[in-house]
Amino acid sequence: MNISYPALCHFEDDGYWCEFPDLESCFSQGDTEQEVVANAKEALEGFIESYLEQHISLPKASPITSFHADGKDFLTYITCNIPQGTKSVKKTLTIPAWLNYNAEKAGINFSQTLQEALIQKLNISTS
């Protein structure tokens, strides 16, 4: 699952530090622009994985145009790919008998169909 957040990277005499305005307490630092961006990606991955493990909803990412960079500071999107969990959970659902009959007759895999429908409905990227 690809997740992106805007990052505001600040220049200081001894290097750079980066903050995610939408994510309280998610920061990184580096000696160069490239290093601070790489470290920001690592920080974002850890932050998101921690939230997901604790079943905490992630805040919505603000548009990058909501923020302003001064001087040598810069704005960028940081994107990370969080692997989808492979653990399956059992769900019980209720559907009309006629739909169940026709789906079974057609050999439809209910679990696979539900997964595909939820991924589409939630606009989740699986690439």
Name the strands of the widest sheet in spatial order: 3-2-1-4
The CATH C-level class name of the largest domain: Alpha Beta
Write down the domain tally.
2
What is the overall number of helices? 3
Task: Tell me which CATH architecture of the largest domain applies here.
Answer: 2-Layer Sandwich
Low-confidence residue ranges: none
Mean pLDDT: 90
Structure classification: alpha+beta
SSE order, one letter for each helix or strand: EEEHEHH
End-to-end Cα distance, whole Å, is: 7 Å
* Main pleated sheet: 4 strands, antiparallel
List the topology elements.
Blueprint lengths: L1 E11 L2 E5 L7 E4 L2 H21 L20 E8 L15 H9 L4 H12 L6
Antiparallel strand pairs: 1-2, 1-4, 2-3
Give a written overview of the molecule.
The chain is an alpha+beta fold and 127 residues long. It has two domains: 80 residues, 2-Layer Sandwich (Double Stranded RNA Binding Domain), CATH 3.30.160; 40 residues, no CATH class. It is 33% helix and 22% strand. Strands 3-2-1-4 form a four-stranded antiparallel beta sheet, with helices on one face. Strand 1 and strand 2 form a beta hairpin. The longest helix has 21 residues. It is elongated. The mean pLDDT is 90.
Write a brief caption for the model.
The chain is 33% helix and 22% strand. It has 127 residues and is α+β, with helices and mostly antiparallel strands. It has 2 domains: 80 residues, Double Stranded RNA Binding Domain, CATH 3.30.160.250; 40 residues, no CATH class.
Question: Which key features would you list for this structure?
Answer:
alpha+beta; Double Stranded RNA Binding Domain; four-stranded antiparallel sheet; 33% helix; elongated
